Amino acid sequence: MENIRFYKEEEQGDLDFAKKLASLGDIYINDAFSCSHRNHASITGIAKFLPSAAGLLLESEIDNLEKILSTPKSPFVSIVGGAKISTKLDLLYHLITKSDLLVLGGGMANSFLKAKGYDVGNSLYEEDLIDKAIDLINKSEQNHCKLILPIDVVVSRSVNDPDFRIISPDDILADEMILDIGPKTIQLILQELLHAKTLVWNGPMGAFEFKPYDLGTINLAKHVAQLTKNKQLTSVAGGGDIVSALTMSELIDDFSYVSTAGGAFLEWLEGKGLCGIEALKK
């Protein structure tokens, strides 16, 4: 067969197409957690026409996430990074109702710094979501979820510029951009993690693809890995970018569990049912 995504009917969730696929087999097994949030013909459609079940990898993923995160031991810490608030709004609103502490880094933290009145210079931020950032700050207080934003940052004129400064968010120049969290921020997070029992991490703390702007993510990950190995912390990481960072730093095996799923992991964290898994129950 050709790659299933080359058929437009696949992403349309076309039931006639799903029936044709079902005609090729006797039993349907879904072993793709990473695709289980998609209402596609091969994910939700085939299950309408064949006896269906979860594969062992899918079962393992759900079992681990359920065991660790359905009733997490407190204090429960969430670390969320990445470029934009817009892709993780639902996640942030959900996590502030579940977490004792929410740590924000990466480009999305810039919008929160801007919302708090800092001039972020030439940094990536989302002007149209400043009101959402303010609302999230207020809701975190209402839900007694402590919010940590960078108290020092690594700035440069571009990701390819080897010259950088580590400064307070007060001191960013107009032509500089925030590319990583600074050492004081890392120490602040680590002090909080000493008391934590469960941690979930999605998204890097900076432009980790470009050295030396990987240090915030990697140094923080090293400490999380050590706390995990010492059995002081149960740690879960997921989403493509953070998995890449942990793989690069050879720390992926030191976390309690790492999910290689992207969108499906995010939707699961948001408390949403995954349509591909629901289809197996019918």
Overall CATH class of the largest domain: Alpha Beta
CATH topology of the largest domain: Rossmann fold
Domain count: the total is 2
Residue share in β-strands: 15-25%
Unreliable segments (pLDDT under 50, ≥5 consecutive)? Answer: none
Strand ordering within the main sheet: 5-4-3-9-10-11
Helices and strands, with pairings:
Blueprint: H1 8-12, H2 15-22, E1 28-30, H3 41-45, E2 52-54, H4 56-70, E3 76-80, H5 89-98, E4 101-104, H6 106-115, H7 130-142, E5 146-148, E6 153-156, E7 165-167, E8 177-181, H8 183-193, E9 198-202, H9 215-229, E10 234-238, H10 240-248, E11 257-259, H11 263-269, H12 275-280
Parallel strand pairs: 1-2, 3-4, 3-9, 4-5, 9-10, 10-11
Antiparallel strand pairs: 6-7, 6-8
Helix pairs in contact: 5-7, 6-7, 8-9
Protein architecture, described:
This protein has 282 residues and is of the alpha/beta class. It has two domains: 4-54, no CATH class; 70-269, Phosphoglycerate kinase, N-terminal domain (Rossmann fold, 3-Layer(aba) Sandwich), CATH 3.40.50. It is built from twelve helices and eleven strands. It has helices spanning 8-12, 15-22, 41-45, 56-70, 89-98, 106-115, 130-142, 183-193, 215-229, 240-248, 263-269, 275-280; strands at 28-30, 52-54, 76-80, 101-104, 146-148, 153-156, 165-167, 177-181, 198-202, 234-238, 257-259. The chain has a six-stranded parallel sheet with strand order 5-4-3-9-10-11, with helices on both faces. It has a three-stranded antiparallel sheet with strand order 7-6-8. The longest helix has 15 residues, at 56-70. It starts with 7 loop residues before the first helix and ends with a helix. 44% of the residues are buried. The mean pLDDT is 93.
